[in-house]
UniProtKB/TrEMBL annotation, chain A:
Residue stretches spanning the membrane: none
Name of this protein: 4Fe-4S ferredoxin-type domain-containing protein
Alphabetically ordered keywords of this record: 4Fe-4S, Iron, Iron-sulfur, Metal-binding
Domain 4Fe-4S ferredoxin-type: 11-39, 47-76, 81-110, 119-149, 151-180, 270-297, 299-328, 350-378, 379-408
InterPro entries xrefs: 4Fe4S_Fe-S-bd, 4Fe4S_Fe_S_CS, Fe-S_Ferredoxin
Pfam families recorded: Fer4_10 (PF13237), Fer4_7 (PF12838)
Domain of life: Archaea
Lineage summary: Archaea, Methanobacteriati, Methanobacteriota, Methanomada group, Methanobacteria
Coiled-coil annotated residue ranges, if any: none
Automatic annotation (TrEMBL), chain B:
Keyword Ubl conjugation: no
Domain 4Fe-4S ferredoxin-type: 41-69, 70-99, 124-153, 155-182, 190-219, 220-248
Keyword terms of this UniProt record: 4Fe-4S, Iron, Iron-sulfur, Metal-binding
InterPro entries referenced in this protein's UniProt entry, alphabetically: 4Fe4S_Fe-S-bd, 4Fe4S_Fe_S_CS, Fe-S_Ferredoxin
Name of the protein in question: Ferredoxin
Keyword Iron: yes
Species of origin: Methanothermobacter tenebrarum
Domain of life of the native organism: Archaea
């Protein structure tokens, strides 16, 4: 390297800055007269993460997660409380960006710089065939975006380095130079549409996610009403309550405009009991019960087993009105959603309808039917309306809501 | 489910401006979002999930995180919306939601459950190993039809109302439940229409197809119908509209 020189007059040794620190000289010196001192230059630091003040909730999540204590919440004078990153302490790990609940912290992305004048590249959407070759050759990440709506690529002038690689490979010569102002204007127009569609899509997804919980909400509302009310029969308009509860699981600014249908998947709550003080133990119900779930039992005159299908036959034959069946369910009347409790005083009547398309042919309704009115043929349910006693047990047990009882007069 | 939500246009504008730093360069200029309508399709798993894990097992692209006793099945980002899970879920808690977001005087979101035909599912044989069963009762809580009860601290299954979903077997920590079932074939609800004339042989479909069902040979599209899961990847990615997914009518 020629880094070692003998300097007259005493011919002492000096080492100049050409030295690469290979320490061959130190190893060769018999008197250990050469020592090496290592100097590390200052590390080259990446930019620190940026915090978008408009998105930041000042929640302090980043402060808590920062391993080196580089983020502090600061409030001074007129400034409201906000997080500040200490450039010295920050090790650029990006952990804060991952912990931010509102996506306000960006890390590892270079933010665009606005240059006012000069020329810029644009893609002419009329000539572009959408082959995306440009996106593959572009060396600058983020310079060529692909429109979700138009499905065509477009160039962000703030990221584009004008290397012209895309221009060279474009098979349809759709990439051309234009003025920077025109390019920015074009970009902003396309990009705004893209952002709007992205925001709409994200929001719709969030709403769809939230609406999957509607059934649980309805179930909660039903349980609360059942607990609070002990009237024998009632009809409560729950439309506003449902709207309120659904609104609560959404983000503040979204509200319900119109409900066309939400109760399709709810199932009725049913309950049967015998009044000991009234029952005379005549046994009329025992004979009438289609599932033979009623037994005479001492000391209580009768006991009703879990197999009960709530058909209402026993209620009708009981001479002393000692059996009560009540049913609670959601229903719709004049655009209002009602929660209703009613007593079943006579055998139910109606028609069972079945949807082949949703039915999974598991056959449990066939097994559960107390009067064998259902059968399965070629994976399709066949209903014998004559035999059917309209108890609704099939509707209640169907795991996919493929079978329904339409009650007369309902 | 069929429901419409609304929100003011100003609230949407605020969201847009807040979310994107890039638009800061445009400050001062008024943000004109105009009128538009966007249609979409989402798959949701409702909390009623019985943890049978059948959806995850049937998903052709592994886009569903396994359901466990402690956690319902969860859709992952690589979902390609083929709807097979919705056809399979034995309690229909996976829904395909059709959505339309409209910006006019205010922003409206209309969501409606699509009616998806269901594959057949039949329980063939189910057995509880009474040696292994510890009587913890977890299976009882998840059974969608209430077919399981504890008798003498052992789970007892009423086979007549068992649908064979396998929730009990999946949540059982002891592996005490053995189930044999018969799951019917996936129902074809859509058809992929290919326009060879319009195709520009860009290979985007070939690159993106999750099941290698489509490929280019001598600038011609070769389509393997048996591999295709009728997801919406190629039809949405095709830049020239040479691939279209058409929904078949299933009302009969």
């Amino acid at each position: 390297m020629d880094a070692i020189h003998e300097i007259p007059p005493d011919n002492h040794i000096e080492i100049d800055e050409k030295c690469i620190g290979c320490i061959l000289c130190r190893e060769a010196c018999p008197y250990d007269a050469i020592k090496m001192k290592t100097i590390l230059s200052e590390p080259i630091r990446e930019p620190i993460p940026t915090i978008n003040p408009k998105l930041c909730l000042n929640c302090g999540a980043c402060v808590a997660t920062c391993k080196t204590g580089a983020i502090e919440l600061v409030a001074s004078g007129k400034e409201e409380i906000h997080p500040v990153i200490d450039e010295e302490k920050c090790v650029r790990c990006g952990y804060c960006a991952r912990s931010c609940p509102s996506e306000a912290i960006k890390y590892g992305e270079i933010l665009p710089r606005a240059v006012a004048t000069g020329k810029a590249l644009v893609i002419d959407p009329k000539q572009c065939i959408g082959c995306m070759t440009c996106t593959r050759v572009c060396p600058s990440k983020g310079a060529i975006k692909v429109g979700k709506v138009s499905k065509l690529p477009y160039i962000d002038p703030a990221y584009c380095a004008r290397c012209e690689k895309c221009m060279d490979v474009c098979p349809s010569t759709a990439i051309k130079y234009t003025t920077r102002t025109a390019a920015s204007r074009k970009f902003n127009r396309i990009h705004t549409t893209e952002i709007v569609s992205e925001v709409l899509e994200k929001e719709t997804e969030k709403i769809a996610e939230a609406t999957s919980k509607i059934n649980s909400i309805l179930e909660d509302i039903a349980n609360n009403i059942i607990k609070e009310h002990d009237e024998k029969e009632f009809e409560i308009d729950v439309t506003d309550q449902i709207k309120e509860e659904i609104k609560e699981i959404m983000d503040g600014e979204i509200e319900i405009d119109e409900i066309v249908e939400i109760i399709e998947k709810t199932k009725p709550h049913r309950e049967i009991k015998s009044l000991e003080e009234k029952c005379v133990g005549c046994g009329a119900c025992v004979d009438e019960c289609p599932v033979k779930c009623i037994e005479l039992e001492m000391p209580a005159p009768i006991s009703i087993g879990e197999e009960c299908v709530y058909c209402g036959k026993c209620v009708q034959v009981c001479p002393v009105k000692a059996i009560k069946i009540r049913e609670e369910f959601f229903t719709v009347k004049d655009d209002k959603i009602l929660f209703k409790r009613r007593e079943i005083k006579e055998p139910k009547s109606g028609k069972v309808i079945h949807d082949d398309m949703i039915c999974q042919a598991c056959g449990i309704c066939v097994n559960k039917c107390p009067v064998n009115a259902l059968s399965l043929k070629d994976d399709k349910i066949i209903i014998d309306q004559e035999t059917c006693i309209s108890c609704g047990e099939c509707e209640n047990i169907c795991p996919v809501n493929a079978i329904k009882l339409i009650e007369n007069g309902a | 489910m069929d429901i419409t939500f609304k929100k003011s246009k100003n609230a949407l504008k605020k969201d847009i401006q807040r979310r994107y730093m890039e638009l800061e360069a445009m400050e001062g200029q008024s943000l004109d979002i105009g009128k538009c309508k966007m249609e979409g399709k989402f798959i949701t798993i409702s909390p009623e999930c019985v943890r049978c894990n059948l959806c995850a097992e049937e998903c052709p692209v592994d886009a569903i995180a396994d359901a466990k006793a402690t956690r319902p099945a969860r859709l992952l980002e690589n979902c390609v919306k083929c709807e097979i899970c919705a056809q399979t879920c034995p309690i229909r808690c996976i829904n395909v939601v059709e959505s339309a977001a409209t910006i006019d005087d205010e922003v409206k979101y209309h969501l409606k459950d699509m009616k998806i035909p269901h594959r057949t599912l039949k329980m063939k044989n189910i057995k509880v190993d009474s040696e292994k069963c510890k009587g913890c009762g977890t299976c009882v809580r998840f059974c969608p039809t209430g077919a399981i009860r504890l008798e003498d601290e052992t789970a007892t299954i009423d086979a007549s109302i068992c649908i064979g979903c396998g929730a009990c077997a999946n949540v059982c920590e002891e592996g005490a439940i053995k189930l044999e079932r018969e799951l019917g074939p996936v129902i074809k609800t859509k058809e992929l229409l290919i326009d060879q004339e319009a195709c520009v042989a860009c290979q985007i479909c070939e690159e993106n197809c999750p099941t290698d069902a489509i490929r280019l040979e001598d600038e011609k599209l070769i389509f393997s119908e048996d591999k295709c899961i009728l997801c919406e990847v190629c039809s949405t990615k095709c830049p020239v509209g040479a691939l279209k997914l058409k929904r078949l009518s299933h009302e009969s």
